[in-house]
Amino acid sequence: MTETSSQAVPPRHIAIIMDGNGRWAARRSLSRSEGHRAGAGAVRKIVTACRTRGIGHLTLYAFSTENWSRPQEEVNFLFELLVEFLQSELPTLMQNDISLRVFGDVSGLPPASRAALAGVIDKCANNKRLCLNLALNYSGREEILTACRRCLDQALAGGAQPDELTPEKFAGHLYSAGQPDPDLIIRTSGELRLSNFLLYQCAYSEFYFTPVLWPDFDEAELDKALLDFAGRKRRFGGLDQKNRGQRTEDNP
Ligand code: IPE
Ligand code: IPE
Ligand code: MG
Fold first, then answer.
1. Which of 113, 122, 138, 223 could, after both became Cys, cross-link 104 (CB 3.0–4.6 A)?
2. What is the position in ligand 1's atom list of the atom closest to the CA of 78?
3. Which domains does the chain show, CATH number per domain?
4. Please, what is the Cα angle at 222 between 48 and 182, to 5 degrees?
5. Cα–ligand 1 centroid distance for 240 (angstroms)
């Protein structure tokens, strides 16, 4: 096996920080709402593209707990757009065997969004090919804290001992329970930060940052990210395959 082919295991889970809608609009002298609408178009393309490429899990960061600090008008528009998106995308999700999950505290979402999400989640529940996770009202720190609270509740109720808590049990309390950690985290718009996204799950994720603004992120840009990922050497703290047991100048 060549070195390249040994690295080319496709990602099982891709997570995307969809950033840059506002700047995309500003460059065109459009309103921020128009940027978000164009961003929704990119979501449509990328969901289908991931399904076509055999990706099993896709997590899209759509609204952080910190995004509530934006002007009320923008927040309202984003949640109206979400309802519109869910209604228009349901047939595509069904045709493509895609299920939907929410990462985040749904209890804090506007009632119309909650109802639309619950309806689509229910209808898509048996779909198997791709699990689409929408991170909404999401905070990585809050996710970890909530998991800690649940573990504490269980321990206090059942008398479990602290050392009985394993990484697997802990991960079972996260929104991502039952799903693999993201292999690849993409952030668009040139920002080089996580902004409170998947803080527990990103331990061994590969990162791909691109200056492309989210509304311009299309199938070709996704393929660039996948190509880049295919060339990464994932070691998980171990050694490259080729260096195992071999003493070389680089690996004495
Ligand atoms: C990302 O685009 C969408 C959300 C955070 C909801 P932004 O709205 O953050 O766009 P910029 O960063 O202002 O360009
Ligand atoms: C991160 O983008 C959140 C989403 C993409 C939903 P932001 O635009 O909110 O992040 P910061 O404020 O630039 O870190
Ligand atoms: Mg932004």
1. 138
2. 6
3. 10-141+181-234 (3.40.1180.10)
4. 85
5. 38
